[in-house]
Amino acid sequence: MTDDDRVFKALADPTRRFLLDRLFARDGRTLTELESELEMTRFGVMKHLKVLEDAGLVVARRSGREKLHFLNPVPIRLIHDRWIDKYTERQVSALANLKTELEQT
Amino acid sequence: MSTMTETDMTTQLYQMWIKATPEAIWEAITQPKWTEKYGYPGHSEYELRVGGAYKGVAGKEMVAMGAPEIVVDGEVVEADPPRRLVQTWRFLWDPELVAEGFTRVTWEIEAGEGGICKLTVTHELEGAPRTAAQVAGEVPNAGGGWSYILSDLKTLLETGKPLDG
Asked: Does the interface ipTM go beyond 0.85?
């Protein structure tokens, strides 16, 4: 599996997207905090966090006795640069061409 | 302990794998001839010793948009090439940002297997909410912040060309 595959796989799940949104709202959270916002066992949340960590979307760091989870936006940015930019640019240029054609007729 | 938690909550973390040597990544972070090639128009200048000055110099495109010539300033707190660089970082774009004062950026480079390194950038932004929004890329028409800069850095090191090059 490539890095991109791991990111797409991690994002293809509503619980994992929810976890990312929670970290986006407030970063640097413990498992206990994240677990309290989900109707799910601690083990279930850990499994989802593991998939997010494998994709590089979440990075866990020790801070004293706690393990804090941080959102890492770089993999999404890389996918944006690799996939999204390319197609939106084409759309924009297609519209620009359409405008030129319409104005000529 | 509550101050500790608050600090943690205002820390932004960016991590990526780059196919390059630790030395090449260190150069790309600290040397003006590299920093001018990626990220926002402009370059960085470091005096790589404890207490040495850091300057983020705006390129002419940024100055045309209203940036001061020195758009970021700070001080080197720790320099351990090619592994770890800790610096203070203050955004000087406008008086309100200047008033938020110095924040702290830590660059960590860890060599992995197969010529791939892990670069982690943490930005501690306690008491600097506007600076935090800027560097997170949340401000319209102010670019993509650290995600953009670091994605561009990775692309430059791996392909020899920046994203828009």
From this structure: no
